[in-house]
Amino acid sequence: MITASATSDKRFYRDADRAILGGVCAGLAGYLGFNLRATRFLAFVAFLMAMPIAVVGYLAAVFLIPSVSGRDYGVVTKRRFDRRRKSRQQRETAEPPGPSVSDVINARCRALDERLARLEKHVTSRRFQIDQELSRL
Q1: Which of 41, 87, 93, 99 has the highest CB neighbour number within 10 Å of its CB?
Q2: Which residue stretches of 65-125 are H helix?
Q3: What is the value of pTM for the model shown?
Q4: Domain range holding 118?
């Protein structure tokens, strides 16, 4: 069974190095893999469209989400590297998985196609027609 900590190596931090007003947009862009300028533009549009809600949400993010700078980021990166190395070692020592579900389904479909082809060949053959005429007598 896979736990939540094993599946998610990424954590959401405010990026203090690329911050303009708290680093929320920079952290969000880094976490989601978006372009920083696009993220800031979308935040600006959100401020224009829904000013009070966007301001309250941004301030809440500034106060609730931890900040990380380049100095602190080395520690975070080392922890992330250690977790990835540990999960890689677990995958290497684990037994190889059996056939995947798609492989099993493909094999069954191939077998059914071959069976259907044999059945069509038999039904369309001259011998089948002769057997049908003889059974009617």
Answers
A1: 87
A2: 70-93, 101-123
A3: 0.46
A4: 102-137
